[in-house]
């Protein structure tokens, strides 16, 4: 298997991404990026289910945007919008991430070990047979899942942090679902949402996802699988129907 290591120190993001693309075109399957510090657009638009890119450092915004297939593993935090409009693949972040994580994502998985910022999962959508998945190990800030049209978000509240402590969860949601470990204060819910304890069928559905998340970070999944969860979803597929008039 062809491998490559790139020292990204003091390299502008444009030549860095050009090097990554050239390496994949030349047959590289495993690429390690060292000393990454704020370079944007890493992995954007890349193809190849058998390609793995390991990022040592802190990548900049839009990590894995439009990506379809590769796996990105980040040993550090990430800036805003990792997984933006991602089509397929995996983004695994061994740290926290900024705002708009998984923005408009339509396939693949984004796993964040720790916390995310505001508007995580905004505009996520299911596309044909593809179902995007965002799992957050720690907590999510306000407006999680805003305007979701499909997909799945799970927030686990590891490390003793409350998984949800701010308002606007699911505001404008009209598809998809959000699962939160433990109870959720009604004051945190956005307009047009409803919450309920998970059913056994729903628990069985999220079980392999939680197991995969835990395995990705070396976490014991046993207490996570035994916990109680709350499911948040849309009251209606047309939450703003009353905002329009018929002539």
Number of helices: 3
Just give the CATH class of the largest domain: Mainly Beta
- Element-level helix/strand string: EHEEEEEEEEEHHE
With strands numbered from the N-terminus, the spatial order across the biggest sheet is 1-2-3-4-5-6-7-8-9-11-10
Q: Determine the fraction of residues in helical runs and give it as a percent range.
A: 10-25%
What is the fold-level CATH name, i.e. the topology of the largest domain? Answer: Pectate Lyase C-like
Distance between the termini: 64 Å
Number of strands: 11
- The CATH architecture of the largest domain is 3 Solenoid
Count of spatially separate domains: 2
Please tell me about this protein's structure.
The chain is α/β, with parallel strands linked by helices and 247 residues long. The chain has two domains: 1-95; 101-247, Glutamate synthase, alpha subunit, C-terminal domain (Pectate Lyase C-like). It has helices spanning 13-25, 200-217, 222-226; strands at 3-7, 30-37, 52-58, 68-75, 88-93, 109-112, 133-136, 149-155, 175-181, 193-197, 229-234. An eleven-stranded mixed sheet has the order 1-2-3-4-5-6-7-8-9-11-10, with helices on both faces. Helix 1 (13-25) links the parallel strand 1 and strand 2 (30-37). The model has no long low-confidence stretch (mean pLDDT 95).
